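Protein modeling request. Please complete all fields; requests missing the sequence field cannot be processed.
Requester role: graduate student
Desired output: 3D structure, token encoding
Chains: 1
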Amino acid sequence: MKFSKKSRYGITALIDLSVYSKSGHVALNSIAQRNHISVQYLEQVFGALRRAGIIQSVKGPQGGYLLSDSPERITMASVIEALEGSYHLPDEHLSGDPAEQAAACAIQRRIVDEVNRQLDQVLQNVTLADLEREYMNCCGEGEMMYYI
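Delivered output (148 residues):
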């Protein structure tokens, strides 16, 4: 499985939103600027996240975005599904030939179903809060406090 640019930018922007929305909504152009993402592209990404109920928009000149739920309750499975649709490998197609059906069945059970199960295991158990903590560990929590 390969994450698309849309998923990578979406997850990056959600981490940013989670970090910076502790005291209120965050402007889209601020998120775009901090993460070097085009505002126009981020508008498309946030549109999909808003439709999925992951974020909320605040209208007006002082508007911005907020998470719709706590970061602990937002899973990466829900984010990727909102941005990409299903992340599962498609089922093997069975043909009329018994030998091909048997091979497809074996591939389905031993590879496709197992990969999908493992993807579910990871993506349903990694939350936005987990990624925010990892982000803070990577950039250094104290480092953010030096900006005045």
